[in-house]
Amino acid sequence: MTRVLFIGNSYTSVNDLPGMLASLVKHGMPGTAFLTETLAPGGATLRSHLRQGVAPQRIREGRWQYVVLQEQSQLGGMHIDGVAFLGQPEALFFPAARQLAAQASSAGARPLFYMTWSRREDLPAQRLLTDAYARIASELGAVLAPAGVAWERVRRERPELELYAEDGSHPAPAGTYLSACVLFSSIFRQPCQATPVPSVPLTGDLVRYLQRVGSEVALAEPLPELAAPLPPPPVLPGLPPGEPLEPARLAGPWRGTLNLYPKAQGMSPALLNLALEAQGMGVSGRARLTMRSQSAEAPISLRVEADAVSFSIRDPSFLEASVAFRGVLRDGALQGVASAEDPQGGQWYGSWTARPETP
């Protein structure tokens, strides 16, 4: 019996990719015993699977032949001034992938990396995804199921074919079927030539096309390389030079904005209010963030060092994390940078400004 454990998120669970793969095996390899189990909560990163502990436990207990690892679609994600970018794989994806792959190997299973696809509106990002998955699979001697490469090929050859759901991110049935074909050929090292799965609303010609593309991409040795070089990483907000700071200069109410939360959801810029009071060489007070209909307010204690000030406020409603602020006084305004790490490990960076409120 071939036993496969899927560890991922909604990119795995939408349209039941494991079940679709099982149906392909049933139709294409009659008599082959095939069993799957899925751990795929929405938005999960491989790091969050490690932290929660269920995935490592099931790896140890399941007697799997393959453990399929699917990272969050943005490689953990990075937001800069409210705009989403792919996360740097070295920061989040690779460390968690190494640990889970090592656990799978120790339990007698072969790790298999399920490469995802770029968003509909960001096809060039596939180059980064392909590079990240190919690098980690090569480093660890793991199987690579290059579904993202197959998606890219179909998008170029048949742009009218809709692989995406309405959100431009998750797969439509055709996208899941293509991914299942890639996984079939990656696991069994043979072309996917199964008869159409009845539950998939696709025509016979389309099914055969997706089977052919999925098989050819999965069985290509080596993986087709993309000619375009990797784009440079995005630039993080930086702290400008500031004026010497004294606690007395910070006392009073301040009002400004923070660019940190998703602009696509209308949450940036958020409003930032500070009410500060100098206490000897220190400064304390309250801070309030207002993001659309959500807000976070808490007492703060500012740390003043030469020309920089720092403080933090916990956002319990959206990020569910502490937002760290660092700033300087420049031309009568406080301006600086903010950062946070969400519960899944995603990195958030932004910029902020605040000016004294006039009576």
Based on the model shown, name its key terms.
hydrolase; elongated; 359 residues; SGNH_hydro_sf; Rossmann fold; Lipocalin; eight-stranded antiparallel β-barrel; 2 domains; alpha/beta; 10 helices; five-stranded parallel sheet; hydrolase activity
What sort of overall outline do the alpha carbons produce when their principal axes are compared? elongated
Q: Please tell me the CATH architecture of the largest domain by its name.
A: 3-Layer(aba) Sandwich
Structural class: alpha/beta
Q: What is the spatial order of strands in the main beta sheet?
A: 8-9-10-11-12-13-14-15
Low-pLDDT segments: none
What Rg do the Cα atoms give? 24 Å
Give a nutshell description of this structure.
The protein has about 350 residues and is of the alpha/beta class. Helices cover about 30% and strands about 30% of the residues. The chain contains ten helices and 15 strands.
